[in-house]
Amino acid sequence: MSVDLAHIRQVMAEADCLFNHAEVEAAIGRVAAAINAELAERNPVVFCVMNGGLVFAGKLLPLLDFPLELSYLHATRYRNETRGGDLFWKAKPEISFIDRDVLIVDDILDEGHTLAAIVDFCRHEGASAVHTAVLVDKRHQRKAAPDLKADYAGLSCEDRYVFGYGMDYKGYWRNAAGIYAVKGL
Ligand SMILES: O=P(O)(O)OC[C@H]1O[C@H](OP(=O)(O)OP(=O)(O)O)[C@H](O)[C@@H]1O
Ligand SMILES: Nc1nc2[nH]cnc2c(=O)[nH]1
């Protein structure tokens, strides 16, 4: 499917900036401070959830000041669309995390099906504890479970389709240096 770049540019031109660069960086700093305070002695395996978690993980990790191992996993249910479907595993973790603390790092907790499935998977595969960090938690009543929360959430955003800082609009604008909401979505 060919992409209409003029449309992609127009989406950015018309988007509402929910959090600017400085606000997102400050939020990442707060998340890092909380993780440093709580996980410094846990020797965790940190899993970046690709693709969306890439920018958050890349900004967060240098702010963590304790020993950890880094790996990635890739589970997706949006696949460049703005509505989620079934969870599809593109890459399961390769590094062993049996009897280890795991820290899952992702961009957004929306309905939470993705994070819940990843947490279940890590527990089932033998992690001793699973911690979760997201850059953004979206406010609405459609969570996969009513009490579904990340242990660490940088920002809370309104119920709109957002992009930037790793989050895409139709595969684009993961590079945007702020968090934006698509006009009309
Ligand atoms: O809380 P949920 O409603 O489950 O949605 C959150 C997930 O959706 C996005 O991933 P996506 O499937 O778009 O893949 P991507 O990371 O490659 O963009 C995002 O990165 C989260 O992993
Ligand atoms: N880019 C992006 N991905 C998502 N995955 C779940 N919700 C969202 C969202 O609002 N934006």
Automatic annotation (TrEMBL):
Gene3D superfamilies: 3.40.50.2020. Residues 18-169 form the Phosphoribosyltransferase domain. Keywords: Glycosyltransferase, Transferase. GO terms for cellular component: cytosol. It catalyses: IMP + diphosphate = hypoxanthine + 5-phospho-alpha-D-ribose 1-diphosphate; GMP + diphosphate = guanine + 5-phospho-alpha-D-ribose 1-diphosphate. One of its GO terms (molecular function) is hypoxanthine phosphoribosyltransferase activity. One of its GO terms (biological process) is IMP salvage. It holds the Pfam family Pribosyltran. This is Hypoxanthine phosphoribosyltransferase. It comes from Azotobacter beijerinckii. The lineage of its organism: Bacteria, Pseudomonadati, Pseudomonadota, Gammaproteobacteria, Pseudomonadales.
